[in-house]
Amino acid sequence: MKLSTLPALALLIGLGAAQAAELTVSAAASLNNAFQELAPAFEAAHPGTKLQYNFAASGALLQQIAKGAPVDVFVSADQATMDQAQAQGLVKREQRRNVMSNSLVLIVPAASTQPPRSLGDLAQPAYQRVAIGLPASVPVGRYTQQVLQAAGLWTAIEPRMIGANNVRQALDYVARGEVDAGFVYATDAALVPGKVKVALTVPTTEPILYPAAPMAGSAQPELAQRFVQWLLSPPAQAVLARHGFGQPR
């Protein structure tokens, strides 16, 4: 190699390093498995990019972001949490997109011999412990509370509620047989078919839609926006569908 080519090579290496970027995505806990599968495809389509995920309840993620966590993209499991992010100026209304949908289910341990046939059955003595995401910070808990309130059952069920910090914790409680029943998303229930079974698919008072948005303070706003748009692409939607998510409506 000629010495004269070394500066050019060093420049190219330097440019490559400069183009490498980590994109931090804070996403609802229910997206964990699907997003892990999505990462290689996005990184392959955007050479030099590395996705870093942070999964938790949407409300907890918003609290982290509001306190200054360096996040590029936020994906919530509900509109209310993203509305709060927008109200705080953390995301821009015109940049948020609904990227997938889900459904609420009532599950019981796989060994259960008498699963509830209706929500009203949860008021029976057989269901003393019901796992529900904490409504203050966990979207699946808010959906559940709305459904039970609409059915006039919240007052009866709330004393039996075992609060979960996120939907995966509610799933674990049921899978381990530590509670008699629990509310999770259909996509979560499908992860452990040998440990839980779906007793009911529960219509919600509002559709379960996941909004995604680049953070207004992202150091990589263009890449963050591309990730949000990419979630709506046919390849990404195909992966999400394999994990049980529906298309955004």
Automatic annotation (TrEMBL):
Residues 1-20 form the signal peptide. Keywords: Metal-binding, Signal. NCBIfam families: modA. PANTHER family: MOLYBDATE-BINDING PERIPLASMIC PROTEIN (PTHR30632), SULFATE-BINDING PROTEIN (PTHR30632:SF0). Belongs to the bacterial solute-binding protein ModA family. This is Molybdate ABC transporter substrate-binding protein. It comes from Aquincola tertiaricarbonis.
